[in-house]
Structure formats: structure tokens, C-alpha cells
Inverse folding.
């Protein structure tokens, strides 16, 4: 790969790094598609796991600690493993313009090592994007807790986090589907997220949605990222895209409308999109995200898409701005009359409806901001159907 | 003749309800005022925002006093919440009376022993509910004068977190109203909605509130078990909102308009619109999805009640489930209760002798509290036998019809 870099020195450099066994499988999918200019690096503690993918450039972390064994589901071991090889990791990740990390949280290696590795990459000044999956509910309580904690750490160190709650995929699967398809479809969605993210940056574009604008969109702290990608047939694209964007598992459940402060939309077509269709599509998307000023559209062509349109949306909401819009309970002025106080509360509620479901514990919905009061060890605020893994059908098409 | 003005206050998750009654010397009572305001600052039976809750209660008290045209002197307060716990505590004593006949002293001794169980320092006894006496294994309502060797009694002791209870009391005290006593809302509402026959035969009263579900299990006319589970109508709405990815207001509306507690074959393929106006944001949803979400939640809730009450005891001691509270208005909820509990269920309202405007299930708790207040007003000293509820019913019937 170093030869490639010397040949095209002007090309921006992107690194795709996977941490843990689950991520390696997704890297393998990606390697087969082989988009030039992207370096793929795998990190794991388990030597056997790394040997399964001999063609991926990989680093075995925690050699001295684990002698090539796995973490055994202990995230502390994962963290120590990454800490012990700090210099090697930061050397490997230095000098990129963008680093994308993949991890399947819930087990030891990804949950423990990913935050450390992302932090090391961030120290070299390159923007970091983490795409992580949360474990299935049926995996048990512990992976869920571990993943929640790890997700908090990843959010802290990473410029942007895109999360895939595997439970949503479980919800959408049919009863008759094979079990291995479930895991495959989780990998598939992770793969789609990465390719939707980096694809437009490398494909010949008619309109600009390049790395620079992407880096711009990442700037700023205290923000929430909304990411959504879908492929819809070119006929009636606007309407079906609107629905597909909502059903994309990367979007948290329950969000009806999002206000985005920056919006990056990349539309890929196989050639069948008409002028009218294109303008309708852009109008729909901007209306969906309530953002007209700061929308950047990219447009590219790919023959392989055929009669389909791929729409990828990357939106950022400034949370600091949201906070000033009374996200926190306001102190009531002495002179405000009772009627006004009530109105105040209403507006606060409305803003909360838009934002509270974006928080980490969005499965709890309204009760997300409250303490978990476990009743015989069960968090009753979480919907029963999610806890029992019952599938809820949604009308499609 | 003017009586004492007493208020029954319920600070629920949904609204604050107050009934004002005038209690007379001759054990009768007139309901002279009522008020109902939206409640803020109370979630799942606990005060979470003192100032807001206090303001709400103040507003409700003002309205109640206006409607009654009198000043409220003292108040009885309903408490709910999952911090309430009960324990069954039996006690026995040797009969010491002449000829082995039970004397009032024996009864008092056994009662004191049964009530005297030590609890943790941060817990507070709220109710002592006595079950029947056992004299040498025989079930006796009032043992005084009977002959036997060993007198036993079992109490259902209800205790709550003293901090949570004192917060509730403080909310009312902050409005300069003295709280005479607190009453557990499940006990209050159960004694109103269950008929005497049902209480005697054994029944399970389930009050589905907004934030909590309270239950009381009557066996042979006495409450043997009560409790509260922190799941209510709000959870149903939240489940719909998360599961169907819709906003909360829409979910609440959808639950009321189209929700049902079981999935029936006719639901297959049927869809409902979220708002029905076909504007932006409106979408169609499967009836089976809506009902399935509600079904699993309620099924789990009923199962929890069944486990809390003891499955074997419930099977042996109850013949009917009574569903009350706002959540019981959900369609086909009685079918689901029948499935889970294995005995018939019915929707329970206040008895017929209650005035029409107070007949709704919302008022059963405050009415029960007021009934309790009346009992408290007219009690003279410690009684060896608890007053039977039927006398209360008679008293009420006189009031409401007269």
C-alpha cells in the first residue's frame, strides 16, 4: 500500500481501522470491494482471529499480556492490551486525513481497546469517526452494560460516533429468517455505513462533497451526529427515500424530526435520475432535516447502481445551541405569571421530544432521563417487547 | 349543625384530586366540594419536583375550598409508589381468661404482638390490616367469649419509605393544611370498587394508574396482600412511541383511540393512521403491532401481580379480578386478565349509590380515602375488632342518596 501512496501523493489518505473480532469480518468484506486509497488496519488480541484474515494488514495488541489469546470478554483486559502497545498504534495511525474506526461493542477487545485506539489517533490531529454496533438483547445483560459504558468513552474521544443498535435489526428480521442471516445483516449494515461514508469521497463527483467539506462538518464540540443511508429505486425516489431514511437502523428509534445545523447529503445514481427527481429529492431531504442554509450536496455516478439511487445523509446538530434553547430546566423568574410558566414548560417539552430520544438510553424513551429503578433486577421502563425480543412489524412500501 | 371540614387528597401522577367532606357527630358525611387539577412534579408515585407539586396542590386546594365554600381544616392523603411494601406477620398467644374463654385482654395482647414487628429505621408503618383470628385453628371473626387454648392472628403490615412518605406529607403541609393520616391508595380504591360479595368470596383489585399499578388481594373479606408496581399507562404510551417510532403525544392519542390489550385475528392486516388527517407526519400503522406492544406489556404486568400475590394463594383465594383506574378502559383488557389469572375479570366502577359525577374510576381512591377519614373521625380509642366495611357502605348510601 505504501507504493500506492507514493504514486498518488496528492490523494487524501483515509484509514479504516477495525478493532476486535467482529470488526475484522467487516474489514474483510471491505477488502474484497477494494476501494483504492484507503488503508485497512485490523487490531485484535486474538492471534487465531487475526490469522483468519491473512490479507488484512493487522496489529496484534497486548502481545506481552495475553500471548495471543483473546480478552475473554473482559473490557479491562482489552484496555490494558491497547495501552501496552500505545507507541505501535499511534505510529500506525499517524498522518491520515481521516480515520474511521469499526468496533462491535459488548465484548472485551472492542469495548476496552477501541476508546484507547481512537484517542491515540485523535492525538495526531486527524478527525476520527467511529462506527460501532451495540449487542443484541439476547446476548445477555453484561454485554449491554459493557457496550453502554464503552460507547460513552468512545463518544468522549471521537469526533463522530455512528451507532447501530443490533436490536433494531432483530426487530426487522422475519421470524423465518435463518439465525446466521441476522449476524450477516448486522455486518452488512456496518459495511454499508462505511462504504456510504467513504464512497462519495473517492468517486468522481459532479458536485462537491469532498473530504474537506466532510472534515468541516465534523468540526465543533458538543454535537450530535445523525447518519442515515439508503438505496431506493429511482422511480418515485423522493418519497421512498424519505421513508427509508426513517427506517434506517442507524437512526435512533422514535425520532420524528431532526433539526440539523449542518447537513451533508450525498446522492449517487446509476444514471436514471431526472432533473425533477433530483430537485424533489434534495427538497425532501432538506425539509426532513429542517436545514436550508448549511446543506452541502454531493452528486456522483456509479454504473453499478443501475436503476437505484443511493442517498447518504450526514447531519450534525449543535447540542450547545440546543442547550440554550432551554434543554435544561430554566430558573423561573419571580415576576413571571403562572400562565407564562406553563407555556414555558410546554416549549421545553417540545424541544425535549426532539432531542431526548437521541440520548444513549433512547430505548427508555420518556424515562431516559430518569434513574433506572430496577424492580427485581428488571428495568421496567424499557419496553417489554424490546426486553423479550419481540418483533414489531411496520408497514413498508 | 356544622361538622368538621375534611379533605381527601390524592396527588397522583396525572392529576391532583381533592374531595371535601363535612363530617358530623352522628357518623355521617356530606361531600360538599371537589377539584381536579393537572399534576406536575410527581412521577411514579414519588415527588420529584417539590415546588411544582406544591404549587399544583395549592391550586387544587384553592379550587376545592371555593367549590365547597368552606375552609379545609385537615386532610387525609393517599400515597402510592413502589416504595410501599407489605409483610405478613402472624402471632399467637395462650388464652388466659377464665374457663379458657377469650377476653378482650387476650385479643389486645395478640394484636400488639402481631403489630410489633421491628422494621428498618428508614421505613415507616402506614397500615396495620388485620386478617381473621384463629382460635385453635378455627377461623373466627371476633373471638371474644369463645373457648379455646391458643389465639392466633395475622396482620398484613404495610410500610413505606419514610422519606418518600414525608415528602408527600410535606407537599400538603407546605400549603398550611395539616395531614391527619395517610392511606395507601390501593387499599382506598379497592375498598370502594369491590362489592361485599366479591370481598367475601375473594378478589383481586388492580388499579392501573398513569405511573403505577396498585393491587389489593381480598381473601375471605380481608386484605391479605397489597402492593404497587411502578408501571402504568405512561409506560404503555412510551412503549408505543419507542416501538412504532412516533412522537409521544401521537402515541397517547393512538393508545386511547385504537389500542386494545390483546391481538385478535381480525387485527391482521388492519391499519390505523397516526393522526388520520393525512398531513405530513401522518403514517399508517398495523393494528396488530399496536396491540402486540400493549399486550406484552400488560401481560408482563399482570404476571408480576400474580407472582407478587403468590400464584397458589391466588388460585385458591380469588374468584374474580376487578380492573379499575384509567388503564382499565383499554379494550379487551379483561380478556387478557382472564387469560393470565385464570379467573373471570370485570371492569369495576364505584358502586351505584355514589353520585353520578363521582362514579368514574378516577374518584375511587379519593372516595376510599374519605371513607377512611370518616372512620378515623368517629373512632373512640382502640377497638378490638375492625369495623366491617358493610357499615361504611350503609353510611355512604345514606349520604349520597339523601
Amino acid at each position: 500500500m505504501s507504493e500506492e501512496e507514493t504514486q498518488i501523493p496528492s490523494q487524501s489518505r483515509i484509514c479504516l481501522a477495525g478493532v476486535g473480532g467482529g470488526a475484522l469480518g467487516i474489514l474483510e468484506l471491505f477488502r474484497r470491494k477494494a476501494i483504492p486509497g484507503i488503508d485497512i488496519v485490523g487490531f485484535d488480541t486474538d492471534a487465531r482471529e487475526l490469522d483468519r484474515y491473512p490479507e488484512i494488514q493487522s496489529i496484534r495488541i497486548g502481545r506481552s499480556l495475553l500471548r495471543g489469546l483473546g480478552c475473554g470478554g473482559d473490557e479491562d483486559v482489552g484496555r490494558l492490551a491497547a495501552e501496552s502497545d500505545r507507541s505501535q498504534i499511534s505510529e500506525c495511525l499517524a498522518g491520515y486525513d481521516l480515520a474511521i474506526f469499526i468496533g462491535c461493542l459488548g465484548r472485551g477487545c472492542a469495548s476496552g481497546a477501541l476508546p484507547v485506539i481512537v484517542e491515540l489517533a485523535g492525538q495526531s490531529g486527524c478527525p476520527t469517526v467511529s462506527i460501532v454496533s451495540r449487542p443484541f438483547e439476547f446476548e445477555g445483560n453484561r454485554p449491554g452494560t459493557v457496550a453502554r459504558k464503552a460507547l460513552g468513552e468512545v463518544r468522549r474521544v471521537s469526533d463522530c460516533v455512528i451507532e447501530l443498535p443490533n436490536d433494531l435489526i432483530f426487530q426487522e428480521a422475519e421470524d423465518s429468517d435463518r439465525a446466521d442471516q441476522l449476524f450477516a445483516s448486522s455486518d452488512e449494515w456496518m459495511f454499508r455505513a462505511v462504504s456510504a461514508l467513504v464512497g462519495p469521497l473517492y468517486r468522481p463527483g459532479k458536485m462537491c462533497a469532498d473530504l474537506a467539506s466532510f472534515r468541516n462538518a465534523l468540526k465543533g464540540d458538543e454535537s450530535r451526529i445523525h447518519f442515515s443511508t439508503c438505496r431506493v429505486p429511482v422511480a418515485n425516489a423522493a418519497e421512498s427515500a424519505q421513508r427509508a431514511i426513517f427506517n434506517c437502523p442507524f437512526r435512533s428509534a422514535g425520532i420524528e424530526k431532526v433539526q440539523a445545523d449542518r447537513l451533508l447529503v450525498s446522492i449517487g445514481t446509476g444514471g436514471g435520475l431526472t432533473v425533477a427527481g433530483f430537485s424533489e429529492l434534495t427538497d425532501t431531504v432538506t425539509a426532513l432535516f429542517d436545514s436550508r442554509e448549511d446543506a452541502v450536496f454531493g452528486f456522483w455516478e456509479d454504473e453499478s447502481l443501475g436503476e437505484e439511487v443511493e442517498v447518504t445523509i450526514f447531519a450534525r446538530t449543535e447540542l450547545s445551541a440546543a442547550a440554550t434553547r432551554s434543554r435544561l430546566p430554566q430558573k423561573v423568574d419571580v415576576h413571571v405569571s403562572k400562565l407564562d410558566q406553563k407555556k414555558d414548560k410546554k416549549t421545553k417539552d417540545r424541544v425535549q421530544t426532539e432531542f431526548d430520544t437521541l440520548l444513549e438510553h433512547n430505548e427508555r424513551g420518556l424515562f431516559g432521563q430518569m434513574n433506572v429503578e430496577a424492580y427485581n433486577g428488571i428495568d421496567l421502563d424499557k419496553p417489554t417487547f424490546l426486553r423479550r425480543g419481540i418483533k414489531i412489524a411496520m408497514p413498508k412500501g | 349543625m356544622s361538622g368538621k371540614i375534611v379533605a381527601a387528597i390524592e396527588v397522583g401522577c396525572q392529576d391532583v384530586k381533592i374531595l371535601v367532606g363535612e363530617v358530623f357527630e352522628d357518623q355521617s358525611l356530606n361531600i360538599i366540594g371537589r377539584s381536579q387539577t393537572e399534576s406536575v412534579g410527581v412521577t411514579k408515585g414519588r415527588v420529584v419536583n417539590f415546588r411544582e407539586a406544591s404549587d399544583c396542590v395549592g391550586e387544587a386546594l384553592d379550587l376545592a375550598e371555593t367549590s365547597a365554600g368552606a375552609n379545609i381544616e385537615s386532610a387525609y392523603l393517599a400515597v402510592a409508589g413502589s416504595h410501599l411494601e407489605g409483610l405478613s406477620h402472624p402471632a399467637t398467644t395462650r388464652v388466659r381468661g377464665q374457663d379458657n374463654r377469650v377476653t378482650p385482654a387476650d385479643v389486645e395482647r395478640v394484636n400488639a404482638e402481631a403489630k410489633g414487628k421491628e422494621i428498618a429505621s428508614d421505613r415507616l408503618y402506614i397500615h396495620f390490616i388485620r386478617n381473621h383470628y384463629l382460635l385453635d385453628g378455627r377461623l373466627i371473626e371476633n373471638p371474644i367469649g369463645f373457648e379455646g387454648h391458643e389465639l392466633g392472628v395475622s396482620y398484613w403490615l404495610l410500610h413505606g419509605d419514610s422519606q418518600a412518605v414525608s415528602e408527600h406529607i410535606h407537599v400538603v403541609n407546605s400549603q398550611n393544611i395539616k395531614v391527619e393520616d395517610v392511606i395507601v391508595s390501593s387499599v382506598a380504591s379497592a375498598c370502594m370498587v369491590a362489592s361485599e360479595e366479591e370481598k367475601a368470596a375473594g378478589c383481586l383489585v388492580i388499579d392501573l394508574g398513569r405511573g403505577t399499578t396498585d393491587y389489593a388481594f381480598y381473601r375471605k373479606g380481608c386484605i391479605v396482600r397489597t402492593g404497587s408496581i411502578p408501571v402504568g399507562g405512561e409506560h404503555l404510551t412510551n412503549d408505543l412511541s419507542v416501538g412504532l417510532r412516533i412522537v409521544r403525544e401521537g402515541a397517547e392519542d393512538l393508545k386511547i383511540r385504537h389500542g386494545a390489550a390483546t391481538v385478535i385475528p381480525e387485527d391482521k392486516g388492519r391499519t390505523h393512521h397516526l393522526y388520520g388527517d393525512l398531513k405530513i407526519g401522518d403514517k399508517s400503522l398495523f393494528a396488530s403491532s399496536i396491540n402486540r406492544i400493549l399486550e406484552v406489556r400488560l401481560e408482563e404486568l399482570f404476571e408480576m401481580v400474580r407472582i407478587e400475590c403468590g400464584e397458589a394463594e391466588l388460585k385458591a383465594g380469588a374468584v374474580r379480578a376487578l380492573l379499575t383506574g384509567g388503564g382499565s378502559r383499554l379494550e379487551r383488557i379483561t380478556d387478557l386478565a382472564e387469560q393470565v389469572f385464570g379467573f373471570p375479570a370485570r371492569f369495576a366502577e364505584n358502586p351505584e349509590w355514589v353520585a353520578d359525577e363521582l362514579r368514574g374510576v378516577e374518584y375511587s381512591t379519593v372516595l376510599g380515602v374519605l371513607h377512611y377519614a370518616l372512620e378515623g373521625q368517629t373512632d373512640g380509642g382502640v377497638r378490638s375488632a375492625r369495623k366491617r366495611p358493610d357499615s361504611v357502605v350503609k353510611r355512604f348510601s345514606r349520604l349520597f342518596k339523601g
Remarks:
- Residues 357 and 363 of chain B are 9 Å apart (CA to CA).
- The two ends of chain B are 17 Å apart (CA to CA).
